[in-house]
Amino acid sequence: MNKILAFTLIVLLIALSVLGYFYNELKNDYRNVFDILRNKRVESNLIIDNKYIFDYEFINDNGVFISYDILKEIIDSTVELSNSKTRVYIEIDRLDFKLETDELTKYVNNNLDKINIPIKFIEGKKYINLELLSKLYPIFYSYYENENVLY
């Protein structure tokens, strides 16, 4: 009877050890997947006109810049490139914006029909300053330099 009880106890301990090992491995795998998903969500938290944008690229080069393609495809399809391809023209009447002072906003609205924003070329791709765009369009973001992450 003691031998059967000892054998059963040893088999039970081995089974529990194996189950514990697999549980721990599975828990670590789920934790890794959760961290990947959480980081993807955090890094993709760019909000444009109350829509979350998940597929974007940004560059930190003396300011935060997003791809010209995002401007053209998501933010405003009516933007035009200058003949030299170094500026983007945006029609004022399509915008609802407020500049630093009311006088400046009023002057711009009354005297200009387009605003131009310079394009920055990085590795052959066109980028637009996100801070400038956020003054003209309903774009909300925060940039954390230490992590090089856009929230």
Describe the structure in your own words:
- The model has no long low-confidence stretch (mean pLDDT 79).
- The protein has a four-stranded antiparallel sheet. The protein has a three-stranded antiparallel sheet with strand order 2-1-10.
- 44% of the residues lie in helices and 26% in strands.
- The chain is built from four helices and twelve strands, in the order αββββαββαβββαβββ.
- The longest helix has 42 residues, at 2-43.
- A hairpin with a 5-residue loop joins strand 5 and strand 6 (87-91).
- The termini are far apart.
- 11% of the residues are buried.
- The protein has helices at residues 2-43, 68-75, 102-111, 130-136; strands at 46-48, 51-53, 58-60, 64-67, 80-81, 87-91, 114-118, 120-122, 125-129, 139-140, 143-144, 149-150.
- The protein is α+β, with helices and mostly antiparallel strands and 151 residues long.
Helix and strand succession?
HEEEEHEEHEEEHEEE
Summarize the main sheet.
Answer: 4 strands, antiparallel
How much β-strand is present in the residues?
25-35%
Number of strands: 12
Strand order of the largest sheet: 3-4-9-8
Poorly predicted ranges: none
